[in-house]
Amino acid sequence: MNDRANLITEMNDRSREVFRRVVEGYLENGDPVGSRTLTRTMSEKVSAATVRNVMQDLEYLGLLDSPHVSAGRVPTQLGLRLFVDGLLELGTVTDDVRAKMEETVREDQSHVGGMLDRVGSALSGLTQGASLVLAPKHEAPVKHVEFVNLAPDRALVVLVFADGHVENRIFTPPIGQTPSSLREATNFLNSLIEGKTLGELRTTVEREIKLRRQELDSLAADLIENGSAFWGGEGAVYERLIVRGRSNLLGDSAEAEELDRIRSLFDDLEKKRDIAEFLELTEDGEGVRIFIGSENKLFSLSGSSLVVSPYMNAERKIIGAVGVIGPTRLNYGRIVPIVDYTAQLVGRILSGKA
């Protein structure tokens, strides 16, 4: 970070202005910015040759690149990072955006999942990107668990919580399950619940399976071990990630290669790969974070950027996050304040302070 900051401070005024105008031009329309265009907008009167020399120096530093034979330049990933860290001017959240988000969260607060789903849709619409909303973990005690067979390779875990919340999660059961093994697994789990949360129940199940495996039908034991890995472990994460606005990214991309990269991104999200990467973003303190291209493993294949901000409960504990994915030429100055405002609003609602 310090090295990047030094690059900005070591630039003279002309180099800094050329760099800023190239990046801003690229973010606005996605096209390379040429020296002739810059000479018309520079604050001082300079020749196109002078501007070209400055651009060549910035290219040598790794901040700009020439995508085609033309003289136009675009920022590199390093250049975008430098701009975001040192030159980005943040806008303000407009009254209509505030009104839209406040209307969205106030519509029906009785169902948190529904409210967060609406937040994701609204955020996607306002930013014209794809939104990610990480919902809080459900911490209420479990009242009842049941396995339901759907097909030879698909089963359902039904979780009923003490506060009335119900979750249905599909998973792949071990081969050869029978109605009797499903009933035995269900009965075994319900005998252990005793008001435990999912995390507590998983720990208990792992211990009891080791102690009482001989009492269980082998199919039932396999089902419990397979199912518990889903509803008590990583599966609890999967259901918490809400993705909205895929079409915004697909619709804006004309090149087949770019479309394939974006589809790959959403395939990864659908398959829930590397979601731990997204969860980790919420554990580094409050405030908006910006990840550009390969800075985040989850999004490197898509050439996308992620703007993400955690939200907190009344105890100032991070319980979730909201974010926007878009092309690296996102309108960061507009989107960063919207994501920040949305995260704070969701946190206030869930803390009962709004």
From TrEMBL:
Function: Negative regulator of class I heat shock genes (grpE-dnaK-dnaJ and groELS operons). Prevents heat-shock induction of these operons.
Transcription keyword on record: yes
Gene Ontology process terms (BP): negative regulation of DNA-templated transcription
HAMAP family named among the record's database cross-references: HrcA
Family annotation (PANTHER family): HEAT-INDUCIBLE TRANSCRIPTION REPRESSOR HRCA (PTHR34824:SF1)
Record organism: Celeribacter baekdonensis B30
Keywords: Repressor, Stress response, Transcription, Transcription regulation
Protein name per its UniProtKB record: Heat-inducible transcription repressor HrcA
Family: Belongs to the HrcA family.
GO MF, one example: DNA binding
Stretches assigned to the Heat-inducible transcription repressor HrcA C-terminal domain: 115-336
Lineage: Bacteria, Pseudomonadati, Pseudomonadota, Alphaproteobacteria, Rhodobacterales
Pfam family of the protein (one): HrcA
